[in-house]
Specification:
- The complex is a heterodimer of chains A (110) and B (110).
- Helix content of chain A is 0%, strand content 59%.
- Chain A has no helices and eleven strands.
- In chain A, the strands form two sheets. In chain A, strands 2, 4, 5, 9, 10 and 11 form a six-stranded mixed β-sheet that branches. Chain A has a five-stranded antiparallel β-sheet with strand order 1-3-8-7-6, with no helix packed on it.
- Helices cover 0% and strands 57% of the residues of chain B.
- Chain B has strands at residues 4-7, 10-13, 19-25, 31-37, 44-51, 54-57, 64-70, 73-78, 87-94, 99-101, 105-109.
- The chains are: A mainly beta (110), B mainly beta (110).
- Chains A and B meet through strand 5 and strand 10 of A and strand 5, strand 9 and strand 10 of B.
């Protein structure tokens, strides 16, 4: 059975600080992994998509890493802003067949 | 929301009644998806479409049917709504690996 575990479940940090979110997965078939940001009451928005052969991918202050051998991914947020407060969802899979994690709820306080 | 609209945005209905949710896109993307999002679960795929009149089941398809008679519209029907179908429903579209999500429909079955 496909499984995605994200940690921590929730995280509170101060504005300007960095943080790292974790994603461990057991998914088949696997060809890529996505990270989404979901604001409260909105649909998810893609941050990065990494293929199994990529180790690191950046999108502004967001940097994702992937280790396909250990089936682990992380999302690092640098110099957090209040607008980063959201749920961050990891979704490994293949093309249209994705398995979504439950997300990490990040709160950035002033 | 990448040219995706969902209607209605909110609906309250009674157990046993049929309900149809609509997803409309202006992007001419080939693939369309219906997901549900519930507390304690990641997004789960209900049905997807890979072209007009071409649809297939996802992970949680029982009690749901879909239709796609035009590229731009993907309908999700709850044939006889049950309280377990109370959820937030998201439509998504894709042409390549990137999936774009709509704003969601909050459905409450009483």
């Amino acid at each position: 059975k496909n499984q995605v575990e994200q940690s921590p479940q929730s995280l509170i940090i101060l504005e300007g600080k960095n943080c790292t979110l974790q994603c461990n997965y057991t998914v088949s078939p696997f060809s890529n992994l996505r990270w989404y940001k979901q604001d409260t009451g909105r649909g998810p928005v893609s941050l990065t998509i990494m293929t199994f052969s990529e180790n690191t991918k950046s999108n502004g202050r967001y940097t994702a890493t992937l280790d396909a051998d250990t089936k682990q991914s992380s999302l690092h947020i640098t110099a957090s802003q209040l607008s980063d407060s959201a749920s961050y969802i990891c979704a490994p899979g293949s093309n249209y067949k994705l398995t979504f994690g439950k997300g990490t709820l990040l709160t950035v306080n002033p | 929301d990448a040219g995706i609209t969902q209607s209605p945005r909110h609906k309250v209905t009674e157990t046993g009644t049929p309900v149809t949710l609509r997803c409309h896109q202006t992007e001419n993307h080939r693939y369309m998806y219906w997901y549900r999002q519930d507390p304690g679960h990641g997004l789960r795929l209900i049905h997807y479409s890979y072209g007009v009149k071409d649809t297939d089941k996802g992970e949680v398809s029982d009690g749901y049917s879909v239709s796609r008679s035009k590229t731009e519209d993907f309908l999700l029907t709850l044939e006889s709504a049950t309280s377990s179908q109370t959820s937030v429903y998201f439509c998504a579209i894709s042409e390549t690996d990137e999936q774009y999500f709509g704003p969601g429909t909050r459905l409450t079955v009483t």
